[in-house]
């Protein structure tokens, strides 16, 4: 694992350092240690799909755009594999240092056949249609990269668990807008086209304004089935939508846990 490296524009470098039985990443400092193949419960997603040549890792490293440097988080991240950790560091740095644009929506993870739930719970090594690579962290966050070197821009999908069976879906891109106003799908058509393949039917909610009442009805029906709805028949407020610039910084730095 030690030897290969990736240079970042701020002068830092994604590289590994061997110190006896320990491996440190990015900075040759003890706090930047990678716990390779940490103990995980037998039913943990990463333990079930563990690969000998690319085991899970636990670490506390993240890049902050506020201080423009690599720091250590108070808690810990568990990455599905060493390679997933490396890809997360690259995308995270890119996200924090580039001008990105995004669309964001909060949806029930089981909407339209459970596509989002499937993306979160499938093996981290299973390829996703329309994606060049994927990565998984904490068992509750997936990033799906939509582009490769043949594209003139970089784009990815960030899916993270929000609680109450809800997930947040960010589609992030640096594609040049083809128009100054309008919906995300009109301003960034190439990114939208790529993301539709990966999201399948969920793309109707993300890009096409699928009726929110349908999503709310599904949430309320699920609550009724679980006998957990409010006494007045109310439920969750429905899905939140947003568009803007800045990428998925907040989601990427959400509280971690296995």
Keywords:
258 residues; alpha+beta; 2 domains; 6-stranded antiparallel β-sheet; 8 helices; 12 strands; 27% helix; 30% strand; globular; disordered C terminus
Order of helices and strands: EEEEHEEHEHEEEEHHHHEH
What overall geometry do the principal axes of the alpha carbons give? globular
Quaternary class: single chain
How many DSSP helices? 8
What strand order characterises the main sheet?
Answer: 1-2-3-4-5-6
* Average pLDDT: 85
Q: Which class of secondary structure composition applies to the elements?
A: alpha+beta
Distance between the termini: 24 Å
Number of strands: 12
Helix share of residues?
Answer: 25-40%
Strand content: 25-35%
Q: Count up the domains.
A: 2
Q: Extract low-pLDDT stretches.
A: 229-239, 247-258
Major beta-sheet overview: 6 strands, antiparallel
Calculate Rg over CA atoms.
Answer: 19 Å
Task: Write up this protein.
Residues 224-258 have a biased composition (Acidic residues). Residues 215-258 are annotated as: Disordered. By secondary structure, the protein is α+β, with helices and mostly antiparallel strands. The chain folds into two domains: 5-97, no CATH class; 101-245, no CATH class. 27% of the residues lie in helices and 30% in strands. The protein contains eight helices and twelve strands. The protein has helices at residues 45-48, 82-97, 111-121, 184-187, 189-199, 203-207, 212-225, 249-252, and strands at residues 5-7, 13-19, 22-25, 33-36, 57-64, 69-79, 101-108, 133-137, 141-145, 155-163, 166-173, 241-245. The strands form two sheets. It has a six-stranded antiparallel beta sheet, with helices on one face. It is globular, with a radius of gyration of 19 Å. It starts with a strand and ends in a 6-residue tail after the last helix.
